[in-house]
Design a protein that fits this description.
Distance between the termini: 40 Å
Helix content: 40-55%
Radius of gyration: 21 Å
Number of strands: 8
Strand content: 5-15%
Number of helices: 11
Structural class: alpha/beta
Largest sheet: 8 strands, mixed
Shape: globular
Bound molecules: 1,4-dihydronicotinamide adenine dinucleotide
Order of helices and strands: EHEHEHEHEHHEHHEEHHH
């Protein structure tokens, strides 16, 4: 089996001062990558900041013989994103890999969310990814090589009550990924996304009153998965997607309890109305079962492919 080697590679992992990001950083560093360990050092809901998160992981990597520097900028600002990429360039001279793991969580029913919650969650997760990916991709395009891994979430892809803003931001990343992936297909840059599940401090957060709890599910997961709820069980997928060996792009993958799967959006064969006049809502009603049926679905990999299927399928 070929070894995935990162000896000449420089990786930025945001939110690498704890939880899942720390595990991604360790696996990349152990394979020879030089690491920029970014972390603002906040509480789970985004309060405060501390250099100790990034410092401790950078120190762990150096103590194990690896190369790492710490960075404390927030991904949530344009200046922070630019500073993160500049710091990696300044220390190591290139940027080959970007893993966007920085994140916070605030659970609440959508009806109760405040302006501050909206600004914060969209700011950290969606704008946070844009803020770092844009300067990074310019560096990657110039060198003709890059690997970006966005960390998304089943909360948005499949739905998680109480997580509307978080889920919206996390699924916004998928639109971002799909378009960046196509734009950079011939530039040596791949962009993929991972929806992880691991019992970090974030996953253990209790839901407020009025929001159905997933804590029973978490307890069950702990029983069934045992040690495989640890972040190290997600890292192999991120490392593979960050490696030269991975040439596929615009994929969404799940990593949960040691199991790896692909997640995709599909088009059902559907029902076609007349071409010479619009169908009526009543026609949609009478064909809704056919429209819904997933049997024989297709998976378009671009808007163009969706149109091709619609025209010919
Ligand atoms: P975590 O709370 O342990 O780690 C997140 C890190 O991001 C923290 O160290 C925090 O200080 C840092 N951070 C927060 N805001 C930042 C900012 N503005 N700039 C830079 N750093 C910032 O949580 P965990 O579980 O490791 O989550 C990592 C990523 O995985 C997050 O994006 C999360 O949304 C996502 N995720 C986690 C799941 C899980 O099961 N743990 C499930 C689905 C997605």
């Amino acid at each position: 089996m070929p070894q995935l080697d990162f000896s000449n590679r420089v990786a930025i992992v945001t939110g690498a001062g704890g939880g899942l990001g720390r595990a991604y950083a360790h696996d990349l560093a152990a394979r020879g990558a030089a690491l920029l360990i970014n972390d603002l050092g906040t509480t789970m809901d985004g309060a405060g900041q501390s250099a100790s998160f990034a410092d401790s992981v950078a120190e762990e990597i150096r103590a194990a013989g690896g190369r790492a520097i710490a960075n404390y900028d927030s991904v949530a600002s344009r200046e922070g994103g630019a500073a993160i990429v500049e710091a990696a360039l300044g220390a190591f001279g290139r940027v080959d890999v970007l893993v966007n793991s920085a994140g916070t969580i605030r659970n609440m029913p959508f009806a109760n969310s405040t302006d501050a919650d909206i600004e914060h969650l969209i700011g950290v997760h969606l704008l946070g990814a844009i803020n770092v990916a844009q300067p990074a991709i310019n560096v990657m395009r110039a060198s003709g090589y890059g690997r970006i891994v966005f960390i998304t979430s089943g909360a948005g892809l499949f739905g998680g009550p109480g997580q509307s803003l978080y889920g919206a931001a996390k699924t916004g990343l998928i639109g971002l990924m799909n378009c960046i992936a196509l734009e950079n297909k011939d530039a040596g840059v791949t962009v993929n996304a991972v929806a992880p599940i691991a019992l970090t401090r974030m996953a253990g957060q209790r839901k407020p009153d009025g929001v159905p709890s997933t804590n029973t599910m978490m307890d069950r997961m702990r029983d069934v998965f045992g040690a495989s709820t640890e972040p190290e069980f997600v890292a192999p997928l991120v490392t593979y997607l960050a490696s030269e060996a991975c040439t596929s792009t615009a994929g969404i993958y799940s990593a949960a309890g040691g199991k790896f799967s692909r997640i995709f959006l599909g088009l059902t064969p559907g029902w076609r109305g007349p071409r010479n006049k619009p169908a009526r809502a009543e026609d949609v009603l009478s064909h809704f079962e056919e429209i819904e049926s997933a049997e024989g679905y297709k998976v378009p990999r671009s808007l163009k492919e969706e149109l091709d299927i619609a025209m010919n399928g």
